[in-house]
């Protein structure tokens, strides 16, 4: 990931992705996008239609990304649990990220489990960034203590 670009790059991803919450698979897809940025593991964006019915509940608030624009948030909801503001989307992203309009990223640390090609991901440290760490991604990663100035 140290050879990932800055500004970040969006690329299509063809592989298996799942998200689990409350003891059930709430999203599953074979097609997605990932954002690659220097010092970050990839952030995966899943098509909104790969989420189970009723799982995405609009949440209050928004944030701003200098590269992608304004993000809106979702609570992820199952009968067993609610993961507050665990998903986000860009409804009207900047032109370089237009392909992810309406796609949903998930904060892996706020759900039970996320997988990429069958491997359980490790959430990017720090609780702010939404990257997913897998065995084929080498760190260190921004987000942990002392990394804000990178």
From TrEMBL:
It comes from the Bacteria. Residues 17-108 form the DUF427 domain. Gene3D superfamilies: Domain of unknown function (DUF427) (2.170.150.40). This is DUF427 domain-containing protein. It comes from Mycolicibacterium poriferae.
């Amino acid at each position: 990931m140290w050879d990932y670009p800055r500004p970040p790059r969006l690329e299509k991803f063809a592989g298996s992705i799942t998200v689990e919450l409350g003891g059930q698979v709430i999203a599953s897809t074979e097609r997605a996008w990932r954002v690659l940025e220097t010092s970050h593991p990839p952030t995966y964006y899943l098509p909104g239609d790969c989420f189970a019915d009723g799982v995405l509940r609009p949440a209050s608030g928004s944030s701003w990304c200098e590269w992608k624009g304004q993000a809106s948030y979702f609570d992820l909801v199952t009968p067993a649990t609610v993961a507050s503001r665990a998903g986000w989307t860009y409804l009207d992203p900047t032109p370089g990220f237009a392909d992810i309009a309406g796609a949903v990223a998930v904060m892996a640390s706020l759900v039970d489990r996320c997988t990429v090609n069958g491997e359980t991901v490790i959430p990017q440290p720090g609780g702010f960034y939404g990257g997913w760490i897998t065995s084929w991604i080498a760190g260190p990663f921004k987000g942990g203590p002392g990394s804000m100035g990178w």
